[in-house]
Design goal:
Layout: H1 15-24, H2 54-60, E1 62-64, E2 72-77, E3 80-88, H3 93-106, E4 113-118, E5 121-127, E6 130-133, H4 134-137, H5 143-165, E7 170-171, E8 180-185, E9 189-196, E10 203-204, H6 212-231, H7 236-247, H8 258-269
Antiparallel strand pairs: 1-2, 2-3, 3-5, 4-5, 6-8, 7-10, 8-9
């Protein structure tokens, strides 16, 4: 049995791919759920129900949460302390819905979320995580937390490679340690774990050119460097996953195998792959074919 499409999404060319994959998974989805502005009609992947008066609350019941987050505004909902509203400038409803489907298929550790469109604005309504930002915890991380970090980033890398090899949409910009929280969601999951709280709102086609997949792995490499530097340790499972993912980088029309070789070099030697932005012949210097 497949997955129910969100409103008007049956025209989206990505949905047949998503439908095919979810059928092979038995229709199972992860924590991320998708909805229109009708909380009385739950989506099959729902993990929590919205207040019945959510539309009125979006107009009159929000209070600035006074939380950091760049272009994402965050609001508390009056009378619902377990929920948080996220509003990202430029986010659109249909791409956000596709992204949540894609993230569910790939098993990404997103905070449970519902999407509501109201008066032309797109809102991500999530469960609130009780905990701390991962980036702040890394310098004094416990063995339990480091094991969770290694498992999570290994999972992200495998998901990225799966998106590339199986031509699945990739929910990009999800790899930074500052985008995760370590904590619990009272009433939903009381086990301390890592949650991606900075939710993605669009996807990429990693096969759209011969470098897109490589550059997504570059961001993973940068995250690895940041994590290991902050925690003063190596996360070996993630390193192994990256080595496997890097081996799948295709030759590029401009640099041959240079991009793949440069990425492997930077992984092995803990160097910054984004040197390529400053050194014009960086990738060519690693070319062997």
């Amino acid at each position: 049995m497949g997955i129910e499409s969100p409103d008007n999404a049956e025209q989206d060319p990505l949905l047949p791919v998503i439908e095919r994959v979810t059928e092979t998974m038995g229709g199972r989805l992860g924590a991320a759920a998708v909805t229109g502005a009708h909380p009385e009609a739950p989506h099959p992947g729902d993990t929590f129900r919205l207040p019945s008066d959510i539309l009125d609350l979006l107009e009159h019941g929000l209070t600035d949460a006074d939380m950091p987050g760049g272009v994402t505004q965050k609001f508390l909902i009056n009378g619902h302390p377990d929920l948080l509203v996220r509003k990202t400038h430029g986010a659109k409803t249909d791409p956000s819905r596709r992204t949540m489907f894609a993230a569910s298929i790939l098993g990404l550790p997103l905070t449970p979320a519902r999407i509501v469109e109201h008066q032309g604005e797109t809102y991500h309504i999530t469960k609130r995580v009780q905990g701390e930002c991962l980036e702040d915890l890394l310098p004094t991380a416990s063995p339990e937390l480091l094991a969770a970090v290694d498992a999570t980033w290994e999972r992200l890398v495998h998901a990225c490679k799966k998106s590339f090899t199986e031509s699945l949409p990739w929910p990009f910009d999800i790899e930074g340690p500052d985008q995760f929280m370590w904590g619990t969601i009272p009433g939903y999951d009381d086990r301390p774990q890592l949650w991606l709280t900075d939710l993605p709102d669009d996807t990429l086609d990693l096969r759209r050119d011969d470098q897109q997949y490589a550059y997504e792995l570059f961001y993973m490499l940068r995250a690895l460097r940041d994590i290991e530097a902050a925690a003063n340790t190596r996360i070996e499972n993630t390193r192994e996953a990256l080595a496997e993912a890097i081996a799948a980088i295709p030759d590029s029309s401009e640099s041959g195998d240079g991009i793949r070789n440069a990425a492997k070099h930077c992984l092995d030697h803990h160097e910054d792959i984004f040197r390529a932005d400053e050194e014009d012949d960086f990738f060519l210097s690693f070319r062997t074919n």
